[in-house]
C-alpha cells in the first residue's frame, strides 16, 4: 500500500467526513511556499497550511535553531523550573506588545490560548470578589474547538452536538459597514447591565466565519465602551497576528489596546505547536497573592517546550529581516492589482482585503455557508491545478507564506480567474 492507502486504514482527519472524503494527498516534503507529494508533484500552499506558515516550509534557519535546542534541552517541567528560550521569548514578545502587557503564559495552541484568556478573565473577577459570568462575542466568531473556545464561538453545526455543555454568551451581530450603529447600540446596552466580564474578538477579520472583515474604527469604539464599563477585552490574534493584517498585531491598527492577547499559529512560523496568552498588570495583580487559592490553575505537560520556544525565537528573528517586511508589502500590492482584475466578473462579489489576506465570495443560488455545495467544486478545481486553496463554503481566500514568489502568486491569481470564467460558461 502507498502512504495514502495506509493513512486510510489508521488515521482520523480533522474536519473530515471520512466515509465520503477522497484519499488524503501524501506530502513528502516542503520548501518555500510549496509542498511536494510522494510522487514528486509540487503544490503551491496559498493558505499557509491552515494559516500557520509565515516564512516557508522547512525553513533552514528555523530548522537549525530547533536542532541546536533539541541537542541541548528538549523539555523540562515548567512548574518550579524555567529555561532560557522561554524567558527570552517572553521578553521579546513583550517588547512587541503594548507597554501595558506585563506577563506571558505559555500554552500549546490557539484553542488553549483562548481557554487561558477566558480563565484569566473569569477568575480575575472571582479573585477580586466581584464575580461576573457573561462574555460578549460576535455571532460568526471562531475561537477554537475546546469547550470554552466553542462557547464563545458562533453557534453552528460544528458545535451543535455540544450545545448543552456550552456556557451562555451574549452574541452581537458580526460587523458590516451597514450595521455598525446597531452593533454599538446593542453592545452598549449589554455593557450597561454591569454583568459583562469580558469581550472576546478576532481583531479586524473573523477567519473561519468566512474571512469577514471590519474596521479598526469600530473596534476602537467597542474598546471605549468596554473601558467605560470596566469590561476585560480579549484579543484572539491567533490567525491575524504576525503581520497578517500588514502590522505586527492586528490591534496595532487601533489606538486602544486589549487587556489580554491570545497568540499561536504564526508564532513559530508554523513549524511547531505553541500558544501564548499575555495580560496586563491589572489582570496579573489579581492573581498575585499570599492566598494560594487565587493561583491560575492551568497548565500542560509541554508548557513552554524549549524546542517550540526556539522555533518561535527563530521566527521572530526572521520577522525582523528587511526581506520579510518587503515581501509582506509586495504581497499586499499584488493583491491590490488582482482585485482590479477579478472585480469585473459577475459571479464574484464582496471582494475584500486586509493586509496579506484577500477573500471573495462566489455567487451561488443557495445561501452562503460553510456547507455550500460549491465548496467541493472549488477544492477539486484548485487541487487539480496543484494549488492549495481550501475554501470556506463559497468563500475563496488567499493567505500565503510571506516567501511566496511573484510568479507563484500570479499562478494562484490566474487559477482563480480560470475558475470563475469556467463557472460562468
Global geometry: globular
Mean pLDDT: 97
H/E element sequence? HEEEHHHEHEHEHEEEHEEEHHHEEHEEH
CATH topology of the largest domain: Aspartate Aminotransferase, domain 2
What is the name of the CATH superfamily of the largest domain?
Answer: Type I PLP-dependent aspartate aminotransferase-like (Major domain)
Number of helices: 13
Proportion in β-strands: 15-25%
What is the alpha-carbon Rg in Å? 22 Å
- Tally of strands: 16
CATH class of the largest domain: Alpha Beta
Strand arrangement, major sheet: 4-12-11-10-7-5-6
Q: What CATH architecture of the largest domain do you see?
A: 3-Layer(aba) Sandwich
The main β sheet shows up as: 7 strands, mixed
